[in-house]
Amino acid sequence: MGQKQIPTYDRLMNPLLKALRDLGGSGSTDEIYQRVSENLKLPEDVLSVLHDPETSNQTEVQYRLAWARTYLKKFGFLESPQRGLWSLTAKAESTSEVDTKQVQRFVRELDRKEKIAKPSAKQGEEVETESEKPEEAKAWRSNLHSILTKTLSPAAFERLIQRVLRESGFIQVEVTGRSGDGGIDGKGIARIHGFMSFHVVFQCKRWQGVVGSAEIRDFRGAMVGRADKGLFITTGSFSRDALKEAVRDGAPPIDLIDGDQLAEKLKELKLGVVTELIENVSVNEDWFKQI
Predict the structure, then answer these.
(1) In the chain, where are the structural domains located?
(2) Fold of the 144-269 domain
(3) Is the pTM value of this prediction over 0.85?
(4) Is-contact 252 229, C-beta < 8 A?
(5) How far apart are CA 48 and CA 50, in angstroms?
(6) How far is residue 270's CA from residue 283's CA, in Å, rounded to a whole number?
(7) Mapping DSSP to helix (H, G, I), strand (E, B) and coil, where does residue 218 land?
């Protein structure tokens, strides 16, 4: 599949804005991706192209949408009240479409001014600005993706998922995948506020590509009659059809956790991901003048 069939990031700007309007003015990253791909009628072979199979689970369409979001945010058309959630600004709501060339010129000029204003930049040193790097593209994610998909053995990955579920509130978590249990790698009980509980079976895939609807159907076939819910965890991503299949009417529900969500959960639980807070100390000269 050639990259030429994938819309460039600037050509995704207006479809992105339309998707948010269709969603009522706000939506998650996944909702935007799904709505844009549906509106543009992008085929599965286009949606399955990975941006960089060696370092990320992100598809090329997702990567270019990230660029589009970054540009529109700097242009003042988007805001992100929390990670993974996007909403239109008042400025965007009063405009039906944007001139993508104008957006590019505005953001690049803004970046040029930011580079000049950065006092910490040494002569000849390259300074990376926000629009030169989509918000999802972080070095720690690429490093984590490589470890999960290339360094960990399948058994070690299953043990990791077992621990993630335990530390997320599941009880009686067991790994059963090595017994050839019909595609089910483990089971557990999810406790809700200490009162309600659901029997859950899970499958965890060390996957560098896109999980399709066939894998979701096979997993559902294995879980029917054995659990209240299914949980499918992957280091990769899910296709548009897989997302639809997971919530198909009349079928047992399956929750999907992709590589980005798994990375965030490991970071939240501090499992192999360490966040260092750097203390910034400064002296308030005005305070001393008041003594």
Answers:
(1) 3-118, 144-269
(2) Trna Endonuclease; Chain: A, domain 1 (3.40.1350)
(3) no
(4) yes
(5) 6
(6) 33
(7) helix
Dist. CA 117–CA 240, nearest whole Å: 42
Tokens representing 153 are 């053995």
Instruction: Please give the CATH topology (third level) of the domain spanning 3-118.
Output: Arc Repressor Mutant, subunit A (1.10.10)
Select from 176, 234, 244 the least CA-distant residue to 214.
244
The neighbouring-strand residues paired with 255 are 231
C-beta separation of 219 from 245 below 8 A: no
Sequence-distant (6+) residues with CB within 8 A of 11 are 100
Residue 60 has a CB neighbour count (10 Å cut-off) of: 18
Q: What is the pLDDT along the chain (291 residues), one digit of tens a residue?
A: 445 589 999 999 999 999 999 999 999 888 899 899 999 999 988 988 888 877 777 889 999 999 999 999 999 999 988 888 899 999 998 888 999 999 999 999 998 888 887 655 444 444 344 444 555 446 888 888 889 988 888 889 999 999 999 999 899 999 986 555 567 999 999 988 777 898 999 999 988 888 999 999 999 999 888 888 999 999 998 988 898 899 899 888 899 999 989 999 999 998 888 877 777 777 777 776 676
